[in-house]
Amino acid sequence: MAPITEDTAQGLHDLVHSLNNRVQALEARIGELEGTPRKSPAEQMRLILMGPPGAGKGTQAPKIKDKYCICHLATGDMLRAQVAKKTPLGREAKKIMDQGGLVSDEIMVNMIKNELDTNRECANGFILDGFPRTVPQAERLDSMLAAKSQNLHHAIELQIDDALLVSRITGRLIHPASGRSYHRIFNPPKASMKDDVTGEPLIQRTDDNAETLQKRLGTYHQQTNPVVSYYQSRGIWKGIDASQEPGQVWKSLLNVFDSSKSASSSSAGGILSKIGLKS
What we know:
The protein is α/β, with parallel strands linked by helices. The protein is about 55% helix and about 10% strand. It has a five-stranded parallel β-sheet, with helices on both faces. A two-stranded antiparallel ribbon has the order 5-6.
């Protein structure tokens, strides 16, 4: 292979820069037409948010969604919406949820795939909350993303001792429409039993009780621990201490995201420098 001359390297550098600008301009234009600001591939974020019931996923996920302009797919909320509509899927899911169990892989995979394919808010990336719960689901998610020439960036686990969860769960309040969560003691709404943003009524889930929680925790650990090991082996898992106050948990999450972006930029720059495409 002939050596790359300085003129050739500069020409390739200019071409890459020009093409990158054109791609970003087209993606931005598409985002404007769809009503969703579209980020460049390097700015997109696709992550899984794991943790037992009451770990704080409902508090942190909306913050991630707003900061990075990505969709939040909380499978629990999606299922509850189906239950409220009394669809066939909702009726089947309600029986399982009332018993503290987890719905089948088939139901979850079909529901998530449909959202990723049709939800415009997912154009810049997504937070999956409650999926995958098993290694087969994780493998199927990888296949779905590979078909789109995409990959998962983070698998974040909010870690907290089971003993601390009972008080959290029994005092939890939910805004059904948005999924925003509060707590009577630890994170109370500004006005009693009203959502801070809309002023709409908050509810307490029927399955937020100690007995059902114990069943849910047992099921969670049994099925989810192998998923943690799966993502640890891929090098994208990160554990966050969820026993901290919510503001500190948020800072810990930002540190993970910022560190990952810095590492990716450094790696990309090193590769370009090796072939003479970056000064």
